[in-house]
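Quick one, tokens below:
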């Protein structure tokens, strides 16, 4: 739950009692509960409206699917998989090129067109 442990919850509860007082605390908890319910209802309505506007092909759409970070991660993962497949295909098609070191005094090959 938000990365908060039991110890932190106890500290927050003690601070809430000290700041707001024990008589106002139930009222504030009730208001917080109402706010969370309203927020959930708003999010559910927004998701349902988005699904209905996009049509039946997006019926399984979740709001987290629209997160730009998730979209970028997905595209990067797909690109990396394609790159791995391409490298494997190239490796399978071409025989391994064996490079031998130059003999002492031998000059490296020189390509006039490359310079």
């Amino acid at each position: 739950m938000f990365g908060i442990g039991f110890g932190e919850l106890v500290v927050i509860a003690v601070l809430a009692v000290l700041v707001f007082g024990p008589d106002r605390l139930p009222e504030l908890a009730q208001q917080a509960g109402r706010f969370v319910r309203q927020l959930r209802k708003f999010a559910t309505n927004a998701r349902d409206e988005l699904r209905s506007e996009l049509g039946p092909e997006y019926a399984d759409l979740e709001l987290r699917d629209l997160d730009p970070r998730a979209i970028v991660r997905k595209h990067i993962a797909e690109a990396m998989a394609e790159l791995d497949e391409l490298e494997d295909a190239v490796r399978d098609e071409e025989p391994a090129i064996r490079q031998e070191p130059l003999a002492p005094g031998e000059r490296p090959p020189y390509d006039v067109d490359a310079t």
